[in-house]
Amino acid sequence: MTERPGRFGEHGGQYIPETLMNAVIELEKAYHKWKEDPGFVQELDALFRDYAGRPSLLTFAGKMTRELGGAKIYLKREDLNHTGSHKINNVLGQALLAKKMGKTRLIAETGAGQHGVATATAAALLDMQCVVFMGQEDMERQALNVYRMRLLGAEVVPVKTGTGTLKDAVSEAMREWTSRIDDTHYCLGSVMGPHPFPTIVRDFQAVIGREIRAQLLEKEGRLPDAVMACVGGGSNAIGSFYEFIQDQEVRLIGCEAAGRGIDTFETAATINTGRMGIFHGMKSYFCQDEYGQIAPVYSISAGLDYPGIGPEHAYLHDIGRAEYVPVTDEEAVEAFEYLAKTEGIICAIESAHAVAKARELAPTMRPDQIIVITISGRGDKDCAAIARYRGEDIHE
Amino acid sequence: MSRIREAFQNGKAFIPFLTCGDPDLETTERAVRLAEKNGADLVELGIPFSDPTAEGPVIQEASLRALKSGTTTDKIFAMVRSLRKDVKIPFVFMTYANVVYSYGADRFFSLCRETEVDGLILPDLPYEEKGEFEAIAEQYDVDLISMIAPTSEDRIARIANEAKGFIYLVSSLGVTGERTKITTDIGSIVRVIRENTDIPCAVGFGISTPEAAAEMAALSDGAIVGSAIVKLFAKYKENAPEKAGELIRQMKNACVGGA
User: Pick from A5, A73, B84, B93: most CB atoms within 10 A?
Assistant: First the structure.
């Protein structure tokens, strides 16, 4: 898929300060060594199985299928993983790798808090120190996850610079890594940043798509017609898509957070409103102004509230292999409520973006066709915010 | 001899950094003139970026103030054009890759040549990625400055070999900002650099006092000071250029004295 390691077409690369170059080179070497090591693979498989609860279920959404009256809908249940989202897949992989590299301390950025909680969890399990950077604004939006991280023994550092959201947390984690490299691994949470992160994170998340294939072959004896997932940086989406990239008949649909709409400035739909740029270590698409200043993006979902997208998604968009569609706050909130009432599943507001698009798509397809929606996480963390969106104030 | 090379001919060089447009471009313009008058050998002009990942809080905040006051790349080129009527010392822009990429590298470097900007520092453009910008920079005779860090180790020789203008030696781990002590063995890094190139090498990051500047300049060909100067603009705003000029004079004297 790539022209040279770390590039996805024009996208990707390593746009980082010289101070970090040897750290990412060391990481790449270690990754290549350990990913083929039978002991490492076995250890990670055991953690996936006996700690994270993999394989996650592939649930047939029978009521939703009947109501929408088109394609058969299956839900890939990453919400059932330990810590409540797909983030644990990547974190267990990276934490184990860091440990093999002799690192004793993990740092991470977090938006909604799911990646922060997962990193704090892995650090507790593997007996490592953990510091999580989180935007001030997000700490207020996701107070419960802040408490969970602290309970797990992590230090949560509020980031007050910029917009106080995910992009600022990433910047601050990068700054911290620049100042302390020897004992510290930066456990990046999405398929973004400098090479080798987009590749490492994709490989650890690719378990989602491999399981979808095996589970669907067992249940239906065939591949899906469409795989849908929400996209911020894009880790659950690439994890769902990667296995199917060579299967041209499988449509891959990434659902971006349009916020208040792609015709407004309050949006985070990078492919639909951004243009090529260089930021956070990578060349990709970014929401930015005419002078290349990164735009203050917006989405109701803290996890999708990021002005960029992973370089491999940018490439899949360029070559037309995957489609990236915008979904507004309103559509996502409706889908959040719909899935709860219809299937009894309270999904993350991030995942609800994919559910929303599937509600549109399914009725246009035939009953013998199949859609798989990746439910990237559970929605307990979002209940207070959704209630607020609907004009109701609840206390957790 | 290139103008950057000339800047290193008056004893050890002193290089101040200014964030363009903090608090406004008129003040920056005045500060550059006073910097020259007070002995600066070269001025680093920061084009503000919204998310400067290599900067500490002082320059981050200055960048945001500058953007808030309406500073743009176009307005900065206009300021430089006006400065070039009388200011002779070399200018080097410091900004982030996206500012240049988004402006269009060809357009950016051609304006650099037109307004006599001698070099460009992009802290998020390491050796591996410099190719696409360097080809265009060379076409317009602009030096793309390379950085070397305490962690560069086996990379020093390769970077030094291909370096242009001067080498920006990062004094310590972490981001820009004042430090009480620099513990890196600068001398041994400079030795490796000198084995591989004869272009000058200046040390930056964390230098906050004339004494520290003198110490770093003694180990290399010059000292670069950012945050300690930028801090004066946060405090004194429109009245900062005089204060900055005074600090620059002290720093330059210390560098030369310590040579």
Answer: A73
